[in-house]
Design goal:
This is Reverse transcriptase zinc-binding domain-containing protein. With 86 residues, the protein is mostly helical. The protein is built from 4 helices and no strands. Helix 1 crosses helix 2. The radius of gyration is 13 Å and the shape is elongated.
């Protein structure tokens, strides 16, 4: 099955949640907006909720996990939407 966002690539799990150019752009926007500074959102954070070591406090780590979870819900609720997320 090809990606529902019509990018022409096979819609694998990894592609639909991270590798699709439209979804990846969405993750870049999320990363910029977290905690008022640029935070790198990694593929492992998105796919298996793996924490990054770049966060200074447990509170910061918790906020990032909440933001990633909320962003994943946006992707899921717009699963077959061809429009850009955001």
């Amino acid at each position: 099955i090809n990606c529902w966002r019509k990018c022409g690539v096979m819609g694998t799990y990894s592609h639909m949640w991270w590798d699709c150019p439209l979804v990846n752009e969405f993750w870049k926007q999320i990363g910029i907006e977290i905690l008022g500074r640029k935070v790198g959102i990694s593929k492992l954070m998105v796919l298996i909720s793996l924490s990054s070591t770049e966060f200074k406090t447990k509170e910061e780590c918790k906020w990032v996990k909440w933001m990633v979870t909320a962003a994943r819900q946006v992707i899921a609720s717009n699963w077959k939407n061809v429009e850009v997320l955001g």
